[in-house]
Structures are given as structure tokens and as C-alpha cells.
Design brief:
Elements (H helix, E strand, L loop, with lengths): L5 H17 L19 E8 L6 E7 L2 E6 L11 E5 L6 E6 L7 E7 L2 E6 L4 E6 L5 E6 L8 E3 L4 E3 L5 E5 L6 E6 L1 E2 L2 E2 L3 E7 L2 E6 L4 E5 L6 E6 L1 H10 L6 E7 L4 E6 L4 E7 L2
Antiparallel strand pairs: 1-22, 2-3, 3-4, 4-5, 6-7, 7-8, 8-9, 10-11, 11-12, 12-13, 14-15, 16-17, 17-18, 18-19, 20-21, 21-22
Helix pairs in contact: 1-2
């Protein structure tokens, strides 16, 4: 997986400047494919440590705890395919489950109905755990060629697969409930990655891009973007091994949002209008 260069960061700042001059679009319009998606301003509220051996694939809050799932990348020998609670003081993961890294690349996770569901990258298999004991209770398959990110609307499992389409799965039989094509003014957007549901919208990372998109789950239209290029650059300045932006977690009780990236040294609590 390629590391994002400084030229992309500079280009991202240029895009932000241009969009800020254009003004914001009405997110309720149905012709978003003909209008520029507006950028959403954000502010950093607080920093927390993040383990620079954590190759982040999933990031979420559950029961007042921050959870992270990671993958093993052979280019980074210290990485592992696991998930668990993140210690806010150290950034280390208290491991709840770990996969054989030689067989599986761990991807996104989600909690739903007292269970934890975990995707894997190219093996077309997912794992099911008890949400209290974290004991593995089963496996499932999914129709996509790859597994990337996961979230839920409270009834379905919603997964990304590296394309521009999200797939809704029934958690009981894992049949496809619906698919959602993600579009902006240029058409379908590829490489949709880690997912999080916040106030009725799906927020998503885009692989190898320094922004997060806000998706209307009713239409698939992208109604906003948050440019986090400054955080990606800061992460690389602090730790040269920092990789792609990836990870959005929402604490619905405290109404706080956290972001991080693969092998980043920090987790950022950020605020923005949502």
C-alpha cells in the first residue's frame, strides 16, 4: 500500500481553499452530481495516544469504550490482525480476539445485538463473537470479493468492500438487504473504506485520501467532506511511518468524534457541524 506524498497534501489544501470560496451547497438538493460537494470545517479538541504498531481497519465506541480492529501487513512486521479496547492513556489495544495473521487480514468490526462481527480482507469470511465474553461463536460469508469497513443502522450490517457501493446484510442470515451506490459530482466514488453512523448519516474514509465523506443513506449522495490533510501531515511529522488516514469513532453518549490513521501516533478528538 502506497504512502501518501506531500504533493497530495498540498493538493488537498488547494481543493479546500477553492471549495471554501465557492460557498456551500444545499445538501437536500437531488442534483448533487452537478454541484460541488461542500467541505465541512472542523477543529481539534483533544489528543490521545495511538499505538504506532496498530494498522487501523475498524474504529468505534461501544459501552463507553473505544474499540479498534487492525490488520497484519507484511510490510510492517509488528502489525497484527486483532481487535480490542483501546487504553486512552497509552493507546495500546487490550486484545479481545486475534486472527492467524498468516491466514487472515483483519478488517472492520461492528457491535450489533450483543454480538461482534468482524470482516476479513480477501478470504470472503467474517467472524462472530459474543459481545460480553468475546468468545468466537460462529463464522459467516459475504458476497463481496473483499471486506473493508463496517457499521450498522441498528438493524442491518453495513459493509464496504473497496468499491463505491455499500452492502446491507441481514445479521441473521447474511443475505443482502440492499446496496447503496456512493456518488458525488463526478459519479460513483471508489475506495470507500472505514464506516461510522453519526446522527443518521454514514461517514466514511476514502482509501489513500485525506478526507472523510458524509453519505446520505437514503440516496447515496455525498453531502459533505472533511479535509483532514493537516492531521495526516502532522502524524507523519511526529512518526515517519504513519500511513493512511483511517478510523472514525463516534461516542453517541458524550457526542464526541475521534479519528486516527494506520500506524499514527495520535488519536484526535475533533468537532464539526453534523
Amino acid at each position: 500500500m502506497k504512502k501518501i506524498g506531500l504533493s497530495v497534501v498540498i493538493y488537498s489544501f488547494i481543493i479546500v481553499a477553492c471549495n471554501n470560496n465557492e460557498g456551500s451547497s444545499d445538501s437536500n438538493n437531488s442534483d448533487l452530481t452537478e454541484k460541488k460537494v461542500p467541505f465541512i470545517n472542523f477543529a481539534v479538541v483533544k489528543y490521545y495516544p495511538h499505538d504506532t504498531t496498530s494498522y487501523t481497519e475498524g474504529f468505534l465506541f461501544h459501552g463507553g469504550h473505544l474499540y479498534e480492529s487492525t490488520g497484519y501487513d507484511s510490510a510492517f512486521p509488528s502489525t497484527r490482525s486483532l481487535f480490542g479496547r483501546v487504553d486512552s492513556l497509552t493507546g495500546k489495544i487490550n486484545v479481545k480476539a486475534e486472527l492467524d495473521k498468516h491466514r487472515y487480514f483483519g478488517e472492520g468490526i461492528v457491535f450489533l445485538h450483543d454480538k461482534v462481527y468482524q470482516l476479513t480482507y480477501k478470504t470472503k469470511v467474517g467472524f462472530i463473537y459474543d459481545a460480553k465474553t468475546f468468545k468466537q461463536t460462529g463464522e459467516f460469508t459475504f458476497p463481496s470479493d473483499e471486506g473493508w469497513g463496517m457499521t450498522t443502522d441498528g438493524s442491518s450490517l453495513i459493509m464496504s468492500d473497496g468499491t463505491g457501493t455499500l452492502t446491507y446484510l441481514d445479521p441473521e442470515n447474511f443475505k443482502v438487504v440492499r446496496t447503496l451506490r456512493i456518488t458525488d459530482e463526478n459519479g460513483t466514488l471508489a475506495n470507500v473504506n472505514e464506516l461510522e453512523m453519526i446522527h443518521g448519516f454514514i461517514y466514511a474514509n476514502v482509501y489513500e485520501q485525506n478526507y472523510i465523506i458524509r453519505i446520505d443513506p437514503a440516496t447515496g449522495n455525498i453531502t459533505g467532506k472533511i479535509n483532514l490533510a493537516s492531521l495526516a501531515e502532522e502524524a507523519r511529522q511526529k512518526f515517519s511511518g504513519s500511513q493512511q488516514l483511517n478510523g472514525i469513532a463516534y461516542d453517541s453518549v458524550a457526542d464526541k468524534i475521534y479519528v486516527t490513521g494506520k500506524l499514527w501516533p495520535d488519536i484526535y478528538e475533533i468537532s464539526f457541524s453534523h
